[in-house]
Amino acid sequence: MVLVEEDRSKSENNSNEKNADNSQYECNICLDTARDAVISLCGHLFCWPCLHKWLETRPNNQTCPVCKSAISKEKVIPLYGRNCTDKKDPRDKVPPRPQGQRTEAPRNNFFGSGLDGLHVSFGIGAFPFSFFASTFNITTENRMPAPAPGSTQYAEEQFLSRIFLIVAIIFIIWILLA
Amino acid sequence: MAQRLQKELANFMRDPIPGMSLDRNLVEGNLNVWVINVDGAPNTLYEGEIFKLQFKFPQRYPFDSPSVMFIGNKIPEHPHIYSNGHICLSILTDEWSPALSVQSVCLSIVSMLSSCKAKSRPPDDERYVQTCRDPSDPKKTRWFFHDDSV
What we know:
Number of helices of chain A: 3
GO molecular function (chain B): ubiquitin conjugating enzyme activity
Strand order of the largest sheet of chain B: 1-2-3-4
CATH superfamily of the largest domain in chain A: Zinc/RING finger domain, C3HC4 (zinc finger)
CATH topology of chain B: Ubiquitin Conjugating Enzyme
EC number (chain B): 2.3.2.23, 2.3.2.25
Distance between the termini of chain B: 32 Å
Number of strands of chain B: 4
Radius of gyration of chain B: 15 Å
Keywords (chain B): Transferase, Ubl conjugation pathway
Oligomer: heterodimer
Enzyme class (chain B): transferase
Protein name (chain B): N-terminal E2 ubiquitin-conjugating enzyme
């Protein structure tokens, strides 16, 4: 009788130890035994799907959930146990969401929209030698593709170039009359 | 999420925090809302008082923090606890991490209560209680944290 009880208490101890052992390998997020385990450089264990979800939750502030050290996809190490049959990197399993695409807005140079990249300057030097010191300077960098004929931007550009032409003609007439 | 809550419940039952016990009646059937009875710790200003602490778990728990507040007619008088039960505690919003749990939040709250030197309400209590966005959900408030001493 005593022997049996001893046995039982022994087996209870064993199961307790087993539980304690397992809990060492629990994911810090789902509290289950880590699946597709990865470990951070600060030494904390996670399931890769759990950690990935957390990194996605705060993409601008990726910190270790346990110790708040900086963390990233590249800075975690996949763990492979002996009987792990699937040797694929767990980080490849949850496809990282593609990065958002963004392109730089074209810089507005000096006339606001419609004239990007096109510098126009009129200058009067010693008349009449350099009367047309006008420079038409087309910068190629950052230049947007020419707007398609018929689009509103095309119409605007046409309109602007006509205004410049009129201004230039008025200016010349004024110079001649004065 | 349900599985994690089950595990947290098991952990909470296995290693209870002194002075905190789960209000059984309110947990059964609905794992998303827990009510915890908090006994003021002995040798603190709250000795002998009993409070009720409510946890509401969002769908995305543990990636989102739970909504935690005191409920009932006894709200501890503390410089970081508003009289509507809302608690000003950084780990409940900005500093939340999925590695935290009901137990760690409870511990923070117990230590917050225990380290209190003088009972008082937050300085902006009256204004906040009248103007907060949602009296039943402290997470709707934008919290600013400034005082680390208590």
